[in-house]
Design a protein that fits this description.
- With about 130 residues, the chain is mainly alpha-helical.
- It has a domain of about 90 residues.
- Helices cover about 60% and strands about 0% of the residues.
- The longest helix has 19 residues.
- The chain is elongated, with a radius of gyration of 21 Å.
Length: about 130
């Protein structure tokens, strides 16, 4: 796993992630899933927690990112199973980020919005249509 890429992925989200409440409603985002798995282990290490807080305060600061990189590297060296789990979550998050997205804006009564690869089916805007 590329820890530098992981730090770059987490950095812009850390301000919100550090203030997030566990068990917030809804499906967590890929970055939140990674952080939710990491945060307990990071909190156990004061230097790692401080590094995460420093990155949250200044997400673009390369020195803070380097310190967080070093702390995560130590953590992953000590716990290879955690490294593997985070690596899998990170790979999943990268795939999700690379996946194309479609946004469809629809307004008005009986309007229809179609996105993605739709190749068949029935569309009806009437109140009495029965499929």
């Amino acid at each position: 796993m590329d820890i530098g890429a992981l730090v770059s992925f987490l950095a812009p989200h850390l301000p919100q992630l550090l203030n997030a409440v566990a068990g917030e409603p809804g499906e967590p985002s890929p970055v939140a899933r990674i952080w939710y798995r990491l945060r307990g282990r990071v909190a156990e290490r004061p230097a790692a927690q401080e590094a995460a807080e420093d990155v949250a305060a200044s997400p673009d600061d390369e020195v803070s990112r380097t310190v967080l990189f070093a702390q995560l590297r130590k953590l992953f060296t000590e716990d290879p199973s955690l490294a593997a789990e985070i690596g899998a979550l990170f790979a999943e998050a990268q795939r999700a980020a690379a996946a194309p997205t479609t946004t469809v804006h629809v307004s008005g009564d009986r309007s229809i919005g179609i996105g993605g690869n739709v190749t068949g089916g029935t569309i009806s805007t009437g109140d009495t249509h029965r499929p």
